[in-house]
C-alpha cells in the first residue's frame, strides 16, 4: 500500500489552524501559535493567506467542502463508498467536527459566516438531489435548507449527549454505523404514517387570527374559534 503524500505547506498550515481554533477558539490563538504548530514562520502564513482572517476563511471553506460539498456524490453512484469512508475515516473528520463545534458556538460574525457557508452548501446539495429525482417537492425551500442544516449540526454540537444517551464514548465507528440507517429512514420515509397533523396545520394556518368580526362565519376576517376572554 502506497503511503499518502505529504501535505503541502498551505495544507499543513490550514490543518494546524483548524486544530488550534478547535481547541482555543479564533480569538484565543495567534498566528505565532499556529506557525509553531505547523512548523513554519508567521510570515509564511501571511504569505499564503494574507491574514489570520484569510486563514479562517480557508479553514471554513475546507470544512464545508469536506463535510457538505463532498456529499454531492450522494446524487450519483458514490453514495455507498462515501458512507463507508465517513464511518471509518474518523481521524480525518473528527478535527473538522471539533472546529465546527467551537466556531459555531462563538458569538461572532465568523460563526454567522460559517453557518451561512454550510447552509449554502446544503442548498446546493438539496438542489442537486431534487434534479436527480431524490427529493420531494418542498413548500418552502428556505425553511427546508435551514432545518436540514441545523438538524445536521445537532449531531456535531450535541455529540457528547448523543453518544452518552446511546451508550457510546464519543462518535465511535460503532455509533456512526448505528445512526446511519435510522437517520436515513427518517429522511426517506418520514415519521408519521399519514398526513393528519400536516393537514391540521395547513388548515389552522389558512384561517385568520384574531377576535371575531361579528359579520358571520363566511366573513374572511371571522375567527371560527376565537380566544375566550379571561
From TrEMBL:
Residue ranges crossing the lipid bilayer per the database entry: none
Q: Does the keyword Ribonucleoprotein apply?
A: no
One Pfam family named in its UniProt record: TetR_C_25
GO molecular function list: DNA-binding transcription factor activity; transcription cis-regulatory region binding
Q: Which UniProt keywords apply?
A: DNA-binding, Transcription, Transcription regulation
The residues covered by the HTH tetR-type domain are 7-67
Region (Disordered) residue spans: 203-230
Provide the protein name.
TetR family transcriptional regulator
What species is this protein from? Microbacterium schleiferi
